[in-house]
Design a protein that fits this description.
Elements (H helix, E strand, L loop, with lengths): L1 H7 L8 E4 L4 H14 L4 E6 L7 H15 L2 E5 L10 H20 L2 E3 L4 H14 L12 E2 L2 E2 L7 H11 L15 H16 L3 H27 L9 E3 H6 L2 H16 L10 H5 L6 E7 L2 E6 L2 E6 L6 E2 L1
Parallel strand pairs: 1-2, 1-4, 2-3, 4-6
Antiparallel strand pairs: 5-6, 7-10, 8-9, 8-11, 9-10
């Protein structure tokens, strides 16, 4: 595994790395690989103790002992759970990625996670069921800005074998078996059933996602051409008349790009408003809410997307 990680070039000797460490086998495997690849002095592990389970402090102690053994620094975050309703898993994810981003920015480091091929399959199936968009089928990116996932090409069985061979112990999170979480139902229910239908079901999901990611580059180039920019530096406007002439699929992609650019993050479902946006009046000012506080705005026949502080509104 070390040779493949080094060959990928995400982690290089003497390059700063922030390794997200839960204490589970995949993150333990990733941390050890990062230390071997970059050198212990260049790696900082990040553990977030949410205090949500009775054994959370034991997870923290295990991570501290592991980092001491590997000779690497450990940063620990102990956030307080927010009161009131809300998506607990989403909050926890936002907390740990925000903490990793702060550390990485200060050190000019790459953030690495222990996501495996198994996680990729589960993510794709979960998103496919919960989000009606092409993006759902693309899965997690191997590289996303400062974030890298070097283990996406390895299975959970391979990370287990690696840890056993290296004499590394890990913690088991009992919540990973709780059926209350949708991701757990995908892992323990849906995937085994798909395996009964075809033994290569998981591999076929991964191959399909890889093909779609390649094809996404072609589609992105078409959007770039319409906005006369690039994915990195896109223009943020298009003539409404031209937008309305585009094939429906390209129209949706252009609108999604504009919405994402206005929000600074993906705006789920914005593309579904493409037909309504194409029908907005071309004189004066017209607006249509796209969700997540983002609006399509047509002014003097030019379409753009803006992020508004006030509530949803549509004016057609």
């Amino acid at each position: 595994m070390l040779e493949k990680v080094l060959a990928e070039g995400t982690i290089a000797p003497g390059s700063p790395v922030v390794a997200m460490l839960s204490g589970g086998r995949d993150s333990v495997c990733m941390l050890d690989l990062a230390v071997r690849a970059a050198g212990s002095d260049w790696v900082t592990a990040l553990h977030v103790n949410y205090g949500l389970r009775d054994d959370s402090d034991e997870d923290e102690r295990h991570c501290a002992e592991l980092c001491e053994m590997l000779g690497t620094d450990l940063e620990i975050e102990r956030p307080r759970r927010p009161e009131g309703p809300g998506n607990l898993q989403s909050w926890a994810r936002d907390v740990r990625y925000a903490a990793a981003a702060r550390l990485a920015l200060a050190a000019g480091a790459t953030i690495v996670t222990g996501h495996t091929a198994d996680d990729q399959v589960e993510t794709i199936l979960y998103r496919l069921a919960s989000s009606p968009s092409r993006r759902a089928l693309l899965g997690m990116k191997p590289h996303d800005g400062r974030l890298a996932r070097p283990l996406l090409g390895f299975t959970r069985a391979e990370t287990t074998a690696y840890c056993e061979q290296r004499g590394l112990t890990w913690r088991e999170d009992a919540s990973n078996a709780e059926p209350a979480y949708a991701r757990n139902r995908v892992r323990h229910g849906l995937l085994p059933e798909l395996g009964k239908i075809h033994p290569s079901a998981a591999e076929n999901v991964l191959r399909t996602a890889a093909l779609l990611r390649d094809e996404a580059e072609v589609l992105d180039a078409l959007v770039d051409a319409e906005l006369r920019g690039s994915a990195e530096a896109p223009r943020s406007t298009i003539a409404l008349a031209r937008f309305a002439e585009l094939p429906p699929a390209l129209r949706r992609l252009v609108l999604q790009r504009l919405a994402d650019g206005a929000a600074g993050r993906p705006v789920a479902g914005a593309a579904r408003f493409a037909e309504q946006v194409a029908s907005l009046r071309r004189t004066g000012v017209a607006k249509l809410d796209l969700g997540a506080g983002v609006r399509a705005v047509v002014e003097a026949g030019v379409l753009r997307a803006t992020r508004e502080a006030d509530g949803p509104e549509a004016s057609i």
